[in-house]
Amino acid sequence: MERFKKIVGKNNVLTAYEDRYCYAYDATAIGEKLYLPDAVILPENTEQISEILKIAHKNKIPIVTRGAGTNLVGGCIPLKGGIVLHLSKMNKIINIDKNNLQCVVQPGVAVEKIQQEVEEQGLFYPPDPASLKVSTIGGSIAQSSGGPRGFKYGTTKDYVLGLKVVLADGTIIKTGGKTAKNVTGYNLTQLLTGSEGTLGIITQATLRLIPKPEERKVLLACFDSIDTAAQAVTGIISAGITPSTLDIMDKNTMQTIEKFHQTGLPSDMDAVLVLEVDGFKEGVERQTQEIISICQELGAKNIRASQNQQEADEIWFARRSAFGAVARLRPNVLTEDAVVPRDKVPEMVKKIRQIADKYSLTVCIMGHIGDGNIHPNFSLDLRDKNEAHRFEKATEELFDAAISFGGSLSGEHGIGLSKAPFMKKALCSKNIELMKSIKKLFDPENILNPGKVV
Ligand SMILES: Cc1cc2nc3c(=O)[nH]c(=O)nc-3n(C[C@H](O)[C@H](O)[C@H](O)COP(=O)(O)OP(=O)(O)OC[C@H]3O[C@@H](n4cnc5c(N)ncnc54)[C@H](O)[C@@H]3O)c2cc1C
Fold first, then answer.
1. With a 6 A CB cut-off, is 76 part of the ligand 1 pocket?
2. What is the pLDDT of residues 113-128, one digit of tens each?
3. Residue 439 pLDDT > 90, yes or no?
4. Could you tell me which residues come within 8 angstroms of residue 238 by beta carbon, excluding any fewer than 6 positions away?
5. Whose CA is nearest to atom 13 of ligand 1?
6. What does the angle CA 292 – CA 245 – CA 217 come to, to the nearest 5 degrees?
7. Interval 77-101 mean pLDDT
8. Confidence label for 141 from pLDDT (cuts 50, 70 and 90)
9. What integer pLDDT is reported at residue 30 of this predicted model?
């Protein structure tokens, strides 16, 4: 520990049991087994991380990088002990370059802070994981996070232009850069984006920005069946409308939100669509009217369109409260993140409900229906071994169903610890072999987030 204290200062190395205990967890419910790190280190710059990794590499010490710990796949669990590198002290926006539509940030800055600061300059960073108030840009890049705006704007991977990365042996590299286009060799920037802390440690990122849309409007459209809500989504897309958000919440989700927050959601309905349209003012008005007509034709009840920022914020508050509300129902909540082709969403939702019934589990379904990305939130008590076992069986069937519909294990939350055992279901053995070779090339001693992804 003395060598690490020399690098970062003694106050930035935590070894007390109670400190290490806090870093044995992230936002994922993983059961009762405790995985304690041997130390937590809070570096302040890239060079310190490089020095730490040189020692870790030589001594085969596992390194788990941590942003805000909000991932939902056990990505920050120090499975093999070692060091948790918490990047909360590297939390600066280095510059915002309006002329080139980009900004340079440190990994520990919260996504919402980036959004707020660039919006003050008339710019826009669209990726918006619902955890954006606390989740960091480093964690978002490492997970290639999505969020409600994925349908129109894509996900984090679409906004990463360049990275500064510390490799497992302490070497510092830069990938990509400040240019909007760049096809110089293999795309290491995209390989590292979504690599979940297993290939390198991101210590700086150059992000692409776009001009801030002039106007935004949020709509809530209520349906008495999920099938009809899905038909409305198809109708909206085939009418050539591109909402920035096309999300859905089912009855159980609405009832759970209302139980804790009283946001006025119509919890007697089977499903509600949450839509946001943005762009130039006239375009937003026209698209809003068209969406309302399409939903009404399909029998939507009670369509609400925000008239001002406060009303828009109220709808967003309800939507963003969903996971937290389900988490309050019982001791644990586990979220799945399967993704299917958009037209298979109604069948997938039906299947999830059947599986939940079969295994007597409580499930609240929500998700980004425009992306075919469904989040069934299972409300559980993992101390009940029988229930934990039923959940495991249900998860496996759920992944099988997603794959049989032409989908996959994860749309945006990543693989981490929880989905690693299912990779063989989704990918052929050659793909997995290639991924393992890449991991070995970047991290021959397997010190970076061992036990995750592959
Ligand atoms: C209420 C709630 C809502 C959520 N909503 C969404 C959503 O809408 N969309 C979505 O995609 N996700 C969502 N998530 C999941 C999660 O918030 C995102 O994946 C988030 O981007 C993770 O950021 P973080 O800073 O918490 O990362 P962490 O959880 O700290 O880390 C995530 C992974 O990245 C690695 N890592 C972290 N920083 C670095 C770095 N600098 N270099 C290399 N590796 C690193 C870690 O080792 C870990 O494997 C939600 C989670 C919660 C709790």
1. yes
2. 999 999 999 999 999 9
3. yes
4. none
5. 129
6. 55
7. 97
8. very high
9. 82
Tell me the C-alpha to C-alpha distance, in Å, between residue 137 and each of 104, 260, 404: 11, 29, 33
- Walk me through the domains of the chain, giving residue ranges and CATH numbers: 93-211 (3.30.465.10), 215-323 (3.30.70.3450), 330-414 (3.30.70.2740)
Cα distance between residue 173 and residue 445, in whole Å: 19
Tokens encoding 87: 């990047």
Q: pLDDT by residue (tens digit) across 396-434?
A: 999 999 999 999 999 999 999 999 999 999 999 999 999
CA-atom Rg of the chain in angstroms: 22
Does the Cβ of 138 fall within 6 Å of ligand 1?
yes
Question: Position of tokens 């709808």?
Answer: 315
Say yes or no: CB of residue 75 within 6 Å of ligand 1: yes
For atom 48 of ligand 1, which residue has the closest CA?
75
Q: Are β-strands 373-380 and 39-41 bridged in parallel, bridged antiparallel, or unpaired?
A: unpaired
Q: Could you tell me the two tokens for 268?
A: 């007697």
- Least confident window among 114-123, 188-197, 321-330, 398-407: 321-330
Q: Which two tokens stand for residue 230?
A: 């899905």
387 φ, ψ (degrees, to nearest 5): -65, -40
Residue 129, ligand 1, Cβ within 6 A: yes
HSE toward the beta carbon, residue 195, CA cutoff 13 A: 26
* Residue 12, number of CB atoms within 10 A of its CB: 17
